[in-house]
Design goal:
With 384 residues, the protein is an alpha+beta fold. 62% of the residues lie in helices and 13% in strands. The chain has 12 helices and 11 strands.
């Protein structure tokens, strides 16, 4: 194995950083980070694979070897230390990244240790209450920034590391492997199990250690459904309307707090808010329809299970509804629970939001009406 060049170190650092934060590294992400062409990335990945720093198969992903992971961790730590040091000595924040890129390969371990000592002596110290507040803010941000929430039991976790948890995944009788759920998407519970918060369009890399041809990227929705199927937990889906309405509420509150309750900007926001209310009502109606459909499917499957000899009508209903042949009663029951939780959360959030919005509109109308009366009285007094 040849000694890694500065360019090779840059690539390994980026791969390590991507895996640490996202759980996977793709050629396109590396090209974007390093501002190079995808073809250039492909050539370097082949070289790093040949030198033993990574395992690379085209279209199947990138995995760091042990030595590659150690080098990536060291390179990232070095980069972060130098960024902190330059910030400490007053270098312009906007120029720090570029400055570090130019000097980081010229620092040895002894120099970095000295820099680390200097930084530790100059770091700000937070008291316990400030740390608690920061931790709570971080927890609340994680709890709100998700589309899918699921409990993962301890037996499903093969390994826990600083990067996250490696979860066992079965994609068929002869296709077992693991996926990495990054640490910022995981909460460890007091009972030893885990709560994961992911988005439908998050990407995760499924790694089969025995059959590399089956390695592949998986969408968050597929991962969540498969894990729920394995442990029997109900998948909690946060309806997209909640997130978009919450953003409108933030805008609304900001304008109200700053006394902006009239004018084009506020009127436009009210129009958007009213449109969102209508869209949410429609979403609730569609969720009712979905629940109704799955209740019909559940009833038909129960009829087939309890009385196979009289199941012709039930089989016909399943055909009319386009139900897949491999869908079982357990699958349907789980989907019903999932939609009930999603609808309940959306309904509760919607009712609470609508109540506060309506109360505010009533107060605003009362103030406007009172101001008009005062204005008329003032005009009447002037004419006397």
């Amino acid at each position: 194995m040849a000694k890694a060049t500065p360019t090779m170190e840059d690539y390994i650092e980026v791969i390590y950083s991507l895996v640490k934060t996202k759980g996977y590294a793709r050629s396109a992400d590396i090209a974007e980070k390093l501002e190079v062409y995808p073809s250039t990335v492909t050539k370097m990945l082949k070289k790093l694979d040949a030198e033993g720093y990574i395992v690379y198969e085209k279209y199947r992903g990138i995995a760091l070897t042990d030595i590659g992971e150690k080098m990536g961790a060291y390179a990232l730590t070095r980069h972060e230390l130098l960024e902190e040091f330059l910030l400490l000595i007053g270098v312009d924040k906007d120029k720090i990244y570029e400055e570090v890129e130019g000097i980081e390969h010229h620092f040895g371990r002894s120099s970095l240790e000295k820099i680390k000592e200097r930084i530790s002596k100059n770091q700000l110290v937070f008291d316990v209450e400030e740390l608690k507040e920061q931790y709570q803010e971080s927890k609340e941000k994680t709890a709100n920034d998700f589309e899918l929430k699921l409990e993962v039991e301890s037996w499903q976790v093969e390994q826990e590391s600083k990067q996250g948890i490696y979860v066992q995944m079965d994609m068929g009788a002869l296709n077992s492997g693991t996926i990495l759920i990054p640490s910022h998407k995981v909460d460890k519970n007091e009972d030893g199990n885990y709560t994961i918060y992911i988005k439908e369009k998050d990407y995760f890399y499924f790694l089969n250690p025995d059959q590399s041809q089956k390695n592949r990227y998986m969408m968050g929705l597929t991962v969540a459904r498969q894990l729920a199927k394995q442990n029997g937990e109900t998948l909690v889906t946060k309806n997209a309307q909640i997130s978009s309405m919450r953003e409108l509420i933030k805008e609304y509150n900001f304008l109200v707090e700053h006394g902006v309750t009239d004018g084009t900007q506020f009127q436009h926001l009210e129009e958007r808010f009213n449109e969102k209310i209508e869209a949410t009502q429609e979403e609730l109606r569609q969720l009712d329809e979905r629940l109704g459909r799955y209740h019909k499917i559940e009833g038909a499957l129960l009829a087939i299970q309890q009385s196979p000899e009289n199941s012709l009508a039930a089989v016909q209903l399943l055909d009319d509804l386009g139900v897949p042949k491999d869908m079982g009663l357990e699958d349907v029951s789980q989907l019903i629970k999932q939609f009930q939780i999603e609808k309940g959360a959306l309904q509760e959030f919607f009712d609470d939001t609508l109540k506060h919005y309506t109360d505010y509109r009533d107060v605003k109308e009362h103030v406007r009406s009172r101001e008009e009366k005062v204005g008329r009285r003032f005009e009447d007094e002037k004419t006397l």
